Amino acid sequence: AFGRFDARASWASQNNVLTRPVVDEWLNEWRNGYLSNEKVEVEPQIKFNWSYDIDVAYAWKGKSFLRSVYAQLQHIKEVGMKGVFSTKDPLDVYDEIQSCCSGQLAKPSFFLLAAKQLNDLDRNIQRHSTAFLNLIKRLQIIGQIGWHVSSQAAHNYSIAKEEKAYLEKIMGPITATRMHYISLQIPTIYQMLVELGIREDYSIGYATMQGLRASTHQSFYWYDLQNDSATELLIHPFVYMDANAIFEEKQDADSAEVFIRSFIDRAEQLLVQPHLVFHSHFITEEKEFRQCLS
What we know:
Blueprint: H1 11-14, H2 22-34, E1 49-54, H3 65-79, H4 94-101, E2 109-113, H5 130-142, E3 144-149, H6 157-171, E4 176-179, H7 188-195, E5 200-201, E6 220-224, E7 229-235, E8 240-241, H8 242-248, H9 253-269, E9 275-279, H10 282-285
Parallel strand pairs: 1-2, 1-9, 2-3, 3-4, 4-5, 5-7, 8-9
Antiparallel strand pairs: 6-7
């Protein structure tokens, strides 16, 4: 579905090493073997990198009147009459995210969905709303902002060009992307991103199970085999996505946390940093998974 590559068809899955950074392990063996007599300078390590997909920024803020009323009624239905007097949008979790980021060596990245036309997959708030503009200002304080390429833009160059141009009018040059729903068809998508001037993409990973699609935690430049040419598109793999843990693998928060820490501990031994992907709205909708952010 969504043009994704099936993880089960990969060499890593078929050889039971889907969650192992095999490339990094090989490089580590080479480093230990051939550089054993060399003094290797080890800088203070960032233990992991992480990012948030902002698919649904708010429950009712920044939405059309009807969508806003419907969302508020749903909130009252879920929490009872106290929801009538609620002034804070339940999906407004950005202060909490900022608190989690304090003290971390690396800042998170945020990928904003900004589809012009909404549909069942692209359900972002209205991109011309004050709420959307204010959200951008808030996120710029916390970390870096990238473009979450909509499901429509993934298959239509003109839509993709329009989305990117709209965001750039608000916040300046856009250089980083992640595909919504990890709708990544190679080489077509990457060729489109290169043509649009994108320099970094964070879509290499799986949307149905945890694992390393490129068998490495390290970033690398994409080589266009179809055109036999090197590119300047830097690819950042991810190994964990909260949606996989919640919906595909049915993990509880404790199991997910153990899983994450195992990646981080092993990666630290290899002097690499795993990349973890979260969704802002799950902090509210899947409350038990909040502990995985700390």
